[in-house]
Every structure is written in structure tokens, then in C-alpha cells.
Amino acid sequence: MTRVLVVEDEPQLVRALVINLRARAYDVDAAADGATALRLAAAHHPDVVLLDLGLPDMDGVEVIKGLRGWTRSPILVLSARQTSEEKVRALDAGADDYVTKPFSMDELLARLRAAVRRTEEADTTDATAIVTTEEFTVDLIAKRVRRGGNDVRLTPTEWHLLEVLIRHPSRLISQKQLLQEVWGPAYQTETNYLRVYMAQLRRKLEPDPARPRHLITEPGMGYRFEK
Questions:
Q1: Which positions bear 4-aspartylphosphate (predicted)?
Q2: CATH fold of 3-120, please?
Q3: Are strands 97-100 and 48-52 parallel, antiparallel or unpaired?
Q4: Using CA atoms, how far apart are residues 37 and 124, in angstroms rounded to an integer?
Q5: pTM of the model
Q6: pLDDT tens by residue, 17-61
Q7: Alpha helices (H) in the chain, listed in sequence order
Q8: 68 near 77, Cβ under 8 Å?
Q9: What is the CATH number of domain 130-225?
Q10: 44, 90, 109, 119: least buried by Cβ within 10 Å?
Q11: Separation CA 227–CA 209 (nearest Å)
């Protein structure tokens, strides 16, 4: 049974989420503040976290950072904050998806199922899944990148983008597909996100970022990874 941790301080929304999740055979814990959420997560190890950013005791981004210190379980942010800056901050801290309030229960459940499915697919990947180029090495299981004998520090968003490309070598991944996979369906037109994050990845991984050999742009179409 998939265990979901709901972190939300609006009692009516908590009640609706718990009822709908349990009706679909999810095991559910609920926390009304960040401290309780971190304690419950450590005790019960949820498979997915649904997290409101506006908590009474701390910002939800701090909860994300606390969870990302030890778990890769998907975190779906539920928030009334709609600015791009807020969304990017949550995603960069390690959130996997961002659902803006008010939302439909069907959409939220679909996002949750997709998050669980991605995790299950990752868990069944060959434990020796290491991709090596002349410039850098990527360990898909350990989520680790090394270049020149040193670890390369990537943000969660940079890692997610690199991982999607590396799992489909030589295949053109459309801008829309990348945006949906890394940032969620609401971001399918935010191509500036891709330009910014691809530039960051190239600076960290390519010997000549202006002439990339591995992270290739197909103008107007998308990106692909070449060994």
C-alpha cells in the first residue's frame, strides 16, 4: 500500500484529501505544521508527500529541504502562491511537482499516480546503471555525477533534467515533454526554463559550453543527450 503524507493546515482540505486518498486504498498520515510533518516522515517513511507551502510554523520550502536531506520520495507542492519565483524556489529545493490552489481532485490524483509510477520505474532500473562519457560519469541509481575525479554538485532540478535526457540517449526529447516531465503540465510553454537550466548543466559538464558535445540543442524542437 502506498503511504501518503499530507502536510496542510486547512482542516477542510485535509479532510477532503484524506477521504479521497483512503477511498483509493492509499495509507494516509496528516500533519498541520512543518515540525509534525518532518517527525511523521522520519517515523513512517512516506512514499509520497503532499505539501502546502504556507504552514504556521515554517515555510514549506524548509520542509522540502529537511526531507531532501535523507529521502527521494516524491514531493508534490500544493499552494496558492502562483508566482514563477515561488514555484522555482520550491522546485529547486527538491519538489517534484507544483499544483496551484484551487485544484481539481482528479488532477491531483493523476499527478500523484504519475509521481509514484516514476519512482517505481526508477527503483526497477539496473543497479549498475552508470553512463560514462569522455567528460563525465553519471550514476543513475546513486544520483551522482563525477567529472575529472570530482563530484559535480547539481540542484534537484538540474539532476532531473539531466536524468530525463540520459535515460533516452540519442533520442530527441521535445521542449514540451521535458517541461512536463521536469516542471509539470502547467509549464509546457516556459521554454526559458530549459534555456537557463541547460546552460547551467553545460557550464558544469561540457568542456566547451558554447560548443556542447553531449547536451545538444535541436533549435525549435528540443534536446538530446549524446555519449
A1: 52
A2: Rossmann fold (3.40.50)
A3: unpaired
A4: 28
A5: 0.59
A6: 999 999 999 999 999 999 999 999 999 999 999 999 999 999 999
A7: 11-23, 34-44, 60-68, 84-93, 105-123, 156-166, 175-182, 191-205
A8: no
A9: 1.10.10.10
A10: 44
A11: 15
